[in-house]
Amino acid sequence: MRTIEQITSLSHLVCSQCEQAYSAFQLQTFSPCCRQPLVAQYNLAEVPGKTVLYNRPATMWRYKEVLPVFEDENIVSLGEGMTPMLEPKRLQSKYELPNLFIKDESKNPTGSFKARGLSAAVSKAKELGMHTCIIPTAGNAGGALAAYCAAAGMKAIVVMPRHTPQVFKNECELYGAEVILVDGLISDCAKKVAQLKQSMECFDISTMKEPYRLEGKKTMGYEIAEQFNWTLPDVILYPTGGGTGLIGMWKAFNEMQQMGWIGEKLPRMIAVQAENCQPVVQTWKGLQPNAKSYTGKASLANGLAVPNPFAEDMILKVLHESKGLPIAISDEVMIDAVKQIASMEGLIIAPEGAALWAALLQLVQQGSIQRAETIVILNTGSGYKYLENIL
């Protein structure tokens, strides 16, 4: 008989605010004590050394000891993870940024980084006996949920803004999901999800309102470390709507430090938002106590139009701990950046990823980032899905 310890070192969950412990063997959402995200904890002393990775498949499940699924047969994978770390030679040369890298998450299944989180969350929902999952989405997360539910033989319900580009709706329908359109932003979709849950049995996979999307997203941090031979870059820029990837990478770095996989040096984390929807920037600047009552507008970068991020406290904590900062970029500047990167590097990246390039240039100009530093920007998705809005 196989034992649980052979597959994962997951031990329990804790409230991100007060650290109250909760069972990892039962279906959980967010913490009832503080109404904050729950975070998976592992017995890291049980995890084998990083040499165990050498002969493993090039997917995010190579890190299965620090992922939450107990039984291998419950893993729902479409080959997500281990996306390439590209060197944009022409941009490096023109802008005198010799150590600039782009981690290209568009190579994931369904064309975005959302595949990571949804692979982990759907796998865990399947393991815990769920048959239907529901998600409010700005676009890419809906497609990813629909795909992984299809692969798992589960039903997916996707609630997205009516103004979302048509390709995202078509994608979900092709995977067999039920698509519900709502007037407004993802915050309005979340209200619709809350209403629907009252009349049906389904598991809500909203950003940070269950513990396991975070675990899938953190594998970006493990991969960055592995791709840089276990030495982290100086700066990582990340497009921040709900913030799962930002929080996840920081969690990964802390786990790797505890396991002795990396040294003390950690990167500064830069959270990039849209000017049309910049709740974290506004809170950071002291213009509001928090984002609970922030009102945002739609953005071409669908994934950044998150006016009330549930994990705002955790996002701000990462920025403070890493000595990073948040910055907002206009839609017009994002479009220019998409076109520049396409024409110079042959990459059609998502507006969210293009926002990072624009932010980087601003921060270099301001002196917040030095040209010689090792810099990673994450292109979180394929720009092809956005062409009707870009051109």
- What does the largest sheet look like? 6 strands, mixed
How much of the sequence is in beta strands?
15-25%
Number of helical elements = 12
Question: What percent of the residues sit in helical stretches (DSSP H or I)?
Answer: 25-40%
Our measurement of the CA-to-CA distance between the termini, rounded to an integer number of angstroms, reads 57 Å
Number of strands: 13
- What value does the Rg take, in angstroms? 19 Å
Q: Going across the major beta sheet, what is the strand order? A: 4-5-13-10-11-12
Give the overall silhouette: globular
Description:
The chain is of the alpha/beta class. Helices cover 35% and strands 16% of the residues. It has helices at residues 89-94, 114-127, 140-152, 166-174, 186-197, 213-227, 244-259, 279-284, 312-321, 331-345, 351-366, 387-390, and strands spanning 10-15, 21-22, 38-42, 85-86, 100-104, 132-136, 155-161, 178-182, 203-204, 235-239, 268-274, 325-329, 375-379. The model is unreliable at 1-5 (pLDDT under 50).
List the helices and strands and how they pair.
Layout (H helix, E strand, L loop, with lengths): L9 E6 L5 E2 L15 E5 L42 E2 L2 H6 L5 E5 L9 H14 L4 E5 L3 H13 L2 E7 L4 H9 L3 E5 L3 H12 L5 E2 L8 H15 L7 E5 L4 H16 L8 E7 L4 H6 L27 H10 L3 E5 L1 H15 L5 H16 L8 E5 L7 H4 L1
Parallel strand pairs: 5-13, 6-7, 6-9, 7-8, 10-11, 10-13, 11-12
Antiparallel strand pairs: 1-2, 1-3, 4-5
Helix pairs in contact: 2-3, 2-6, 3-4, 6-7, 10-11
